[in-house]
Amino acid sequence: MQIRVLVVDDDQDILHALQKRLIWMGHEVLTAEDGEHALKLAIEEQPDLMFLDIELPGLSGLDVLKLLAERRSNVPPQYTPEVVVITAFGTIDRAVEAIRLGACDFLTKPFEPDHLSAVIEKARGQMALTRQIGLLQAEVEGRYEQVIGHSPRMVELLNTARRAAGASATVLLLGETGTGKEVMARALHRWSPRASKPFVVVNCAALPESLLENELFGHEKGAYTGAGKREPGKIESAEDGTVFLDEIGDMPAGLQTRLLRLLQDQEFYRVGGTQPIRTNVRFIAATNRDLKEAIQDGGFREDLFYRLNVISLTVPPLRKRPDDLPALVEHFLRLHGASIAHRTFTVSPDALDVLQGYHWPGNVRELENVLVRAITLCPDDRIEPEHLGITAPRRLPVDVAFSEDETLNYHAVMEGYSRKVLEEALRRAGWNQTKAAEMLGLQRTYLTRLLRQRGVLVKPPSP
Hints:
Helix content is about 45%, strand content about 15%. By secondary structure, the chain is α/β, with parallel strands linked by helices. The chain is elongated and about 105 Å long.
């Protein structure tokens, strides 16, 4: 495969020898004799590979490497070349320094043709990996490129989030499952001064306590059986960036204590470690649980809650932001239409009516899944109701009649009506709470809390 190579050396013999050999190998070659010209060509011509002499007049090779590293932090990695430094036998220590600054290999003078071929093959492998990373980054950024929302509730939420993003204060994201809390967390990171640094996700509900502890804090060599070497955890990997603690309400009690200490002192110990490690990361946590209720039940530390709840943002469920649904539909059709079917899709008015009439217990995540299914099954470019796999919600009409002498206290009447609706839903669902929650358009956990608050029997009455 032909690649574009920039050769930089003030030694005319080396410059022309490399140029001649690379052209013979089938590559396109650019040349420069000083650092300033090399940097200009690297930016304007975007070569795939650069052979860079360390000893250059004016701007040295190491200076060029430093400037390219700065550029790499501001543009996608595929837009800066892989660098092989050219060095003499007496300056190997400078080559080591160049590797530390981002060079992928070094070539010693005088070079052998076979060695040159091996260096190019290694560099091409690195280029392929860099481009793969660039594509993956672009895919992730495209998926999380923006928070979709123009309804008053979302506009207010986004305005608050943008103000919060500039600080390093911990943010607690609340909301039902599927509302887009991770999307909001990524937006907070993207809007923050830490945007060029890592964004690391840790799902606190996905692993048992011991594995989650290792995932967060890393371990020292010999910390446990099988720990053959020291491994950093997610917190170390996110240095100067953001750690997103998803499902924080499900974090085991022992780790809650360690996290509290980390938030207070900004330092931690690896598993099996004895030396404290200072860290500079911003924490964003998210949960679909009622943490205040979890505190009362003894499942969550109250002091940790207050440490996390410096800035609290509640992402509303989709049913409470119906004005945003058309924009979300358009976004997901554009995103998945291109990746799955490689064409554009539209939604018929009838299909849009079904989408707008549905209660979306799974929120934005369920909407995305429904549209992915529709894109997959739709034989043409127009999505109809039969492609969606959902129907309008079943309604629970409950007649209420008032006598003339009955009190009309609002709260008492509404509580009584709520109790009737809950009882009727349970009866129709055969006393299955999951089915009753789906029928009512409620989260299962929220239904459980309502049943307890209203004193509703959760089993059929005895005959």
